[in-house]
Amino acid sequence: MPKRPRAAFLAALLLLSATGARAEDLLSAYHQAYRTDPALASARAQLQATLQDRPAARAAFLPHLGVGASVGFNTGHFSGFAGLNLNKAYYSDSYSVTLTQSVFDGQSYTALREAGSHIQAQTASLLYTEQQLALRVATAYFQVLEAQAQERVAEKQRQLLESIYKQAEATLKIGTGDIIAVREAQARLDAARSDLIRAQNAVAVAQRGLERLTHAPVGQLADLRSFTPQGPHPDDMDAWVKAALRDQPLIREAQAQLQTAQEEVQYQQRARWPKLGLQGVAQHIHGSPFPGFNENQAGVSLNLSMPLYEGGSISSRVQKAQALSVAQVDHLGSVRDQVRLDTQTAFLNLLDSVSQLEAAKATVESAKVSLTGTRKGYEVGTRSIIDLLQTATDYIRAEQDYNVALYHQVLARVQLKAATGQLDLQDLQAVNGLLQTN
């Protein structure tokens, strides 16, 4: 299960041509959702904002150049030197250029590393959002197909029970039937009509769910063609769990967040460290009580600062950062446990989906044979109308269960890849290949 890089995922997606308002297959639905999903757009913007943390932290190591200027009006009384007694009003102005360069600042080094781990966390978050969008689109797409299939089954049930009801009515009129059988058939038919309404509503709800992701009306969706059920490859749960613990973006994000929290502890601890900086100043001053007096000066200084006591604020910030770091350790452990459980569950679901689909298909075939036999038995008088109604109900239920197993088998493939953090465009293309796109 090699990991496919995110860059290849995005590059392959961009090769898809732009689609219209109708989502015809899974890939076009995902492409529309990828371009319009607000959660994905938000994650991209958050990453772009986070990327600025690195140059902001790097700025502490670079020279800082500034200029200053002032113009003022002054009045003063000057006395005491050589009998001086002078009242004077005068204008003054000054201009200065200041250049500072950090020589040593322990916090700045930590801030730069912290910015890098923060970017890693946000990058993993964006990748997780992309994979979850693919999973959500696939889930919504097959929910629509399943709802449409169940609607067709509900219509088939209505037609089947309506024919049985008419048959029961006909036998009652010629005196070979009974009123109880007719009423039972009528009750089953009424229930079938109600089921059809619910199935139609389910289709509308499923379509709204897909429209929410694609932000476009749902057109005629390509349905599944005949395919061979496939379980997990490799058929080794431990291998999938190991891959999930390595590739799942949620774990990468939690690991980067833990690294950020640990670096924040170091950042707060280094607030006690001394800071050393080099400063150069050039200044021109014009204007004084003494006509023609100007001052021009330039200087360089090496400045050292170190906090001795700040009311306990440094200790408080260190303790807070340490507590948050411990919390992040527990969060990482919780994420790993959840990813492990999700992967194991998805693996077992996919493994079970193969046998479920095969069993559902066999049940449909058996139920169909049973319905045909019961109908013939009713025609020759060996089976009752109640037997026929029950057999018809069993056949319809078998078809409904088959539809659930059919779409679940395909979706379970996507769910396992998403649980391990390996879901990408190639996986969607493989599932899209199961659709009748022609």
Shape: elongated
Q: Main sheet? A: 4 strands, antiparallel
Number of helices: 11
Q: Strand order within the widest sheet?
A: 1-2-3-4
What gap, in angstroms, lies between the N and C termini?
Answer: 31 Å
Which sequence of SSEs, written as H and E, runs from N to C?
A: HHHHEEHHHHEEHHH
Per DSSP E runs of 2 or more residues, the count of β-strands stands at 4
**What level of helicity do the residues show?**
55-70%
Number of domains: 1
Low-confidence parts lasting 5 or more residues at pLDDT below 50? 1-5, 7-23
Binned strand content: 5-15%
Computed over alpha carbons, the radius of gyration is: 38 Å
Name the average pLDDT. 91
Oligomer: single chain
CATH architecture: Up-down Bundle
How does the helix and strand content classify structurally? alpha+beta
Describe, in short, the structure shown:
The protein is α+β, with helices and mostly antiparallel strands.
Question: What features would you describe in this structure?
Answer:
By secondary structure, the protein is α+β, with helices and mostly antiparallel strands. 66% of the residues lie in helices and 14% in strands. Helix 5 (106-173) runs antiparallel to helix 8, helix 7 packs antiparallel against helix 9 and helix 9 (313-380) packs antiparallel against helix 10 (385-420). It is elongated and about 145 Å long. The two termini are 31 Å apart. The model is unreliable at 1-5 and 7-23 (pLDDT under 50).
